[in-house]
Amino acid sequence: MTRCGLPCLLAMMLIISSACAEGQSAAPATSGGESGGAEPPTELIVSAAASLKETLEEAGRRFEASHPGVRLRFNFGGSGALVQQLEQGAPADLFISAAREPMERLVHKGVVAEQDIRVLLRNSLVLIERKGSAHIRQLGDITGEQVRIVAVGQPETVPAGSYAREALEHVGLWEAVETKAVYAKDVTAVLTYVESGNADAGFVYETDALQSDQVETVLRLDPELHSPIEYPAAVPLIASHPKEAAELLAFLSTDEVKDIFEQAGFVVMEGM
């Protein structure tokens, strides 16, 4: 080998390696980026009153089927608790309350624009017992000895509890019921208390009572005793995906979804 043989050989190897690297970087890119996969779906976060769980999940499945690029993530709970989350900066693309007051709080806080609020539904407040109990025939019976525990949504955070307190105050029974009340985080919990026998009676929405075969409605409260039970909805100003959220809200107004709500016992507002 000549004196320059080894350096020349090393130089040639470097040239070949560089050419290979350039050839690899020049290869055409895949359409899906480095992973070659499709774009991830847009995730919409829907914060909604617990009493809407069954119907919204069904409506959500149908929305996703017709909008394959969107996925829904639900956050159900008491309307007041959900408002507290939003006030503290929790993400949400759509908010549906079980009362006007929680939504009005968000307007006051600048989280929701008043002109964007849309009332979707109405409901009724009922008093339930576990099937076969037969302790209550009229509202005043809940103060009797046979009814030891009454389940009520926490009035400060659960609209159903607020409506119940308002109605009972109207007829002068709240103080008597308050002494035997057990408070729940939402109407779903109230229903569970009565189903399990941990409460003798409870106040829930008519739609909740219809979902259970373990309880029976013993009394439908006169709507004149409390504020109208309305479900306002709005896309918050903090929404990450306002366009898709507006499409979801519009979808909830279609005849297909209207049937879901009506079968569950809701009253659909005209012009929804």
UniProtKB/TrEMBL annotation:
UniProt key word GTP-binding: no
Xref: InterPro entries: ModA (IPR005950), ModA/WtpA (IPR050682), YvgL-like_PBP2 (IPR041879)
Signal peptide: 1-21
Keywords tagged on the record: Metal-binding, Signal
Domain of life where this protein originates: Bacteria
Gene3D superfamilies: Periplasmic binding protein-like II
Family annotation (SUPFAM superfamilies): Periplasmic binding protein-like II
Keyword Phosphoprotein belongs to the record: no
Alphabetical list of CDD domains matching this protein: PBP2_YvgL_like
PROSITE patterns named among the record's database cross-references: PROKAR_LIPOPROTEIN (PS51257)
Family from the record: Belongs to the bacterial solute-binding protein ModA family.
Protein's name in the database: Molybdate ABC transporter substrate-binding protein
Gene: modA
